[in-house]
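INFO batch 0412 | record 1 of 1 | parsing
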Amino acid sequence: MTTYTARPIGPTALKELRDTDDSGRRPVPLTDAEGGSPLRCCLRRSEPGERIALVSYAPLRRWARETGAEPGPYEETGPVFVHAQECAGPATDALPFTNAHRTVRRYSVRGHILGGRLVETPEEFPEAFAEAFTDPEVALVHVRAVEFGCFLYEVRRGRGA
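INFO prediction complete | emitting tokens
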């Protein structure tokens, strides 16, 4: 059985986002009084009292810079929570944020959407990833929240899959 690895936002991108986000705004750090915000830097929920920031992030734009892809109108910018300061990253290889309905959205090597799948239980994630990567046209997938459509994390073909 193949193991699929959730990829957090990388350290270089995080450093840039903490200075100026992908919409050109300076982040405004805040103390998360209640906790529970899904952090894309370490792929866990925030604890009460942690300093976090809500930033605009364009995952396909950044992936396209690495790969030469041309996502065109599929390039989305959306809100993500990150720690306000550098953190240690994920503490585990377990798939995060699987406790609610999610969409596994498939993208081609050009960065174009090839389809998606609603995932309703944690047990369905490996099957959804295997289904996606069975298609040779799929280069990566995004896991997104259903209720707001927010990017949660990425899984790539090869090293990340």
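INFO post-check: The chain has a mean pLDDT of 94.
INFO record closed
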